[in-house]
Design brief:
The chain is mostly helical and about 190 residues long. The protein is built from 7 helices and no strands. Helix 4 runs antiparallel to helix 5. It is globular, with a radius of gyration of 19 Å. The termini are far apart.
Amino acid sequence: VVSLLPLSSLILSPFFGWFVDRYAMRALIVFFSFVIMIPAFLSLMMVHLAPSTMVVQPVLAMVVLGVSFSSIPAALWPAFTLLVPEKYVSTSFGLVSGLINGVMAVVYWGQGLLVSRASSSSSSSPLLYLMCMYIGLVLVGVLFTLLWNVEDWRQGNKVNSMTPLLELKYPRSIFSPLRNCWHRRKEKG
């Protein structure tokens, strides 16, 4: 079951890359990717609490996490080219990669500390504490991506709108009404 996470990410990453190239909406995709992680982690927590009643749920949760883990980078990394001046794009990629690795190091250290303390002090499983930690981190991600979407809306939807070249290539899409609303707002403001 655990291998479904990287397998679904492997299979779905090219699709999400195409989707972002076709429809843009980068900050919204990142936001919804964080949102769908919450029920996935909750369902993994429920598997531990009532294992005999949950058969399909861990498989579905791992696939949902794979969707989320492949859609976030597909939408997030191209956004840097829109937000950072061209001469600093490589520097921004390096800084963000370093930041991500630093946060991962702290999270892994926190996981180890949480598991060792939960194992020695209580009768409940450390898995419950880990799932609560993951849900807390995801809620922080939801908050920051919500703030990012609000700020992008205020700035004229630079991240969520298509580039002019893509507008020419894909003038009509399922998101055209939403895009047209954003463009009308830009023209008024």
